[in-house]
Amino acid sequence: MSSPRLYIILGTLALLLAACSTQYPETCPSSTPVGLMDADEIASDASLPFRFPLEQSPIDETLYYGWFGVSNQCTPDIVDCYEYPERLFQAAEDYKRPAGTPVYAMADGTISFSGPAGGYGWLILIDHPQANLYSLYGHLSPSRWRLKVGTDVERGDLIAYLGDSDENGGSKEQPLDTHLHFGIRSGQTADYPAKGEWRYMAGWIKLCPQDLGWLQPSLVITSQKIPDGGYPQPKVGFFTRWGLDILFASLFMIGGLQFIVSNRKKTRFLLLIPGFIAIVAGIVLQNRGLVRSNLLLVIGILILAIGIYYYIRRPITKLHDQS
Ligand SMILES: [Zn+2]
Q1: Which of 170, 205, 234 represents a domain boundary (last residue)?
Q2: Could you tell me the distance, in angstroms and rounded to a whole number, from the CA of residue 191 to the centre of ligand 1?
Q3: Sequence-ordered list of residues with C-beta below 8 angstroms from that of 48, at least 6 positions apart, any chain
Q4: Which domain holds residue 8?
């Protein structure tokens, strides 16, 4: 076997091993909302760098119903109780409010995303480079007001209104409680992959939110402590953060290279490799709860089937050629 091919195979195996070796914790540090009593005071004190994104403090339990980083175990003080078969963690805090409630920027910054994002309905992300944070505001109202990406905002600027229950990520058939889903993440929007759940997921995730750089919003806002140079980047492994993109890229790159090398003799077995890679990647990513893993699994099975077809067919063609 020539060395480039060997490197391709060894490299692929290394990628898969790295993806498979990612450890997921059984328990996360659980947290309860902090300092919500002081929300109004914090919002009105313009000398502070951060504020809560709503006008009234979210202390009333009919107004507050989300939490951060706790497992899927329902606690007695939760107004709405979610039931999930798996251990999932919420990487944001939810504040229940009527549709049309104004939402304010938690700090000075620049809008880095503004658009529809699945279950979030209309979503806004704001980069705050001065603290190396970005903030996330979900379930907004696209019918009322839409700010554009690149808009600079100041702390306390109106950025959106909460959406109606059929436009905030819900529909007429399945209306969603009107509420603000508010998250804070260390780093900037561009530090995360450009597509997929990895970037936006702040609802129900399998990893501890803290491990992915999600910070407890009420804790950040009430502490008002910005470390020198801003909040540190999360200690997430390179492959944990970029693995999906790398796997996709490798899959198609290897598929292309494969097509070239497999036209030569003695390398027909390589036809089977891309399919296996895609299937393993699909299983790994399914374990991580990423929806695109289903697609990857289907692609893998198709590629493998094509590989098997050619693997079986080739020798016959070859006999013909030699006769
Ligand atoms: Zn939420």
Answers
A1: 234
A2: 22
A3: 42, 224
A4: 3-18+239-322
